Fold each of these.
Amino acid sequence: MERLQKVLAHAGVASRRKSEQLILDGKVRVNGKTIKELGVKVSSTDKIEVEGVQLEKEQKVYYLLYKPRGVISAVSDDKNRKVVTDFFTDIEKRIYPVGRLDYDTSGLLIMTNDGEFANMLTHPKFEIDKTYVARLKGIPEKDDLKKLERGIKLEDGMTAPAKVKLLSGDKKTGKAIVQITIHEGRNRQVRRMFEAIGYPVQKLSREQFAFLTLHGLNAGESRELSAHEVKLLRVLADTGKRV
């Protein structure tokens, strides 16, 4: 279920704000009933009309993007910086990122126009694993990494237990490469977790989302997810198990 104004915006009827105004003006009907209030949620089976014209159901699409550093995980930016949809100029559908990666973080990002699917993959209760590789300033001790494995207190609360592995450490440069897997998606969470144990992140990349990887892609490249991959992601989010 998605909010009506969001469905209208994603279908290309108008911007989110203008879609809200269409609703308030009584120009939108759902299953024959005129809607004049915001907050109404609709499903993919509901019949939606705008000013007497039925909303066509848009074909759902799903892409995997290798987001480069220095790109905003959004469909637009008021500072005119590059955004992830700039890599899909040949796609007519209004796609958007599932969750986000920080401006300075590269890696795997799913793009779609399926709001229900996006919610399933980003809601914490579904516990989808996301694996990152971080280059740190300093080489953490085992006890430091165990703090992350148990969960660590941040300003917005305790984190869930993480899976952490030291991949390499260079005493000459004082840098380390660490792999970390989490299923939460708080703002700048991985960076804040490492900062909390005293090892700032210098470079960060999301290498895996559930079973999806960046294999075969370079930064800025993308590929369409197969129907089977989409099905596996739905099952994983719904049951926590792969099929």
Note: The chain has a mean pLDDT of 92.
Amino acid sequence: MSDFTSNFWSVYVAGIVIISISACALLLWFSGKARAMTASDNTTGHVWDGDLREMNNPLPRWWVGLFIITILFAAVYLYLYPGLGGSPGSSGWTSKGQFEAEVAKGDAEVAPIYAKFMAMKVEDVSKDPQAHAIGERLFMNNCSQCHGSDAHGGKGFPNLTDNDWLHGGTPEKIVETLHKGRVGNMPPMAAAVGTSDDVKNVANYVLSLSGSPHDSVRANLGKEKFGVCAACHGADGKGMQAVGSANLTDNIWLHGYGENAIIAMVANGKTNIMPAQEGKLSDAQIHVLASYVWGLSNNAPAKQ
């Protein structure tokens, strides 16, 4: 770890750069001074293809000039810009600073567009073709990695088109989710439920809530034990958006379907994280993105 906290690598890189440039200059100087042993006809004695002889002429001036310009350019560049290890350069340029300047320039160019959308409700923005195109691009760049390009999600990643929401699907809740992110935590509950047989009974009762295939005898035995789960999912199993617990009656299974999947969930629990976007996207971008997401399950706007 000390290699990353000391200035060794900075000095090492700076040394390699200086040695390389100095070596180029010395090579040019020696090549101009050194003279090869030549015959009386100014050739080196090397012959190819019978009659192709190597002459001992000096390097062309234009080539030498370009070589010198290259060395001088490298020296000026290293003086102005960071290149000698940890040296910042006299110009004060940084890649981070350039990035931030370009982002600020881009934000300034699109500010009038976003200002118009910020003055509108999310529901109205979702019907605007231009906002839809911007929101779609924001979604592809920031959300599709988990939720898929079609927003249908996958195992462990919610489908955003089915109007089934863990924390609520109102525009305000979607904006809140994008800003702050979410942490979904289903703790291991096997010990609280009882024996492995009790867990299996509860799993079948959960399946019965959505009308899924199940063992009715085990489901009846598991109903009482479901009281342990009701604290989050409600006595009727419909979940509570206030705590982000899933609705167990709608036959939508985020982490897998069937008795074994439910048993594994009760036994092992699950933690899901939706990262916050407020440090990555501006308020205006989140507003437009929220309108796009809301529109996916609420009469999505017409495309251009």
Note: The radius of gyration is 34 Å.
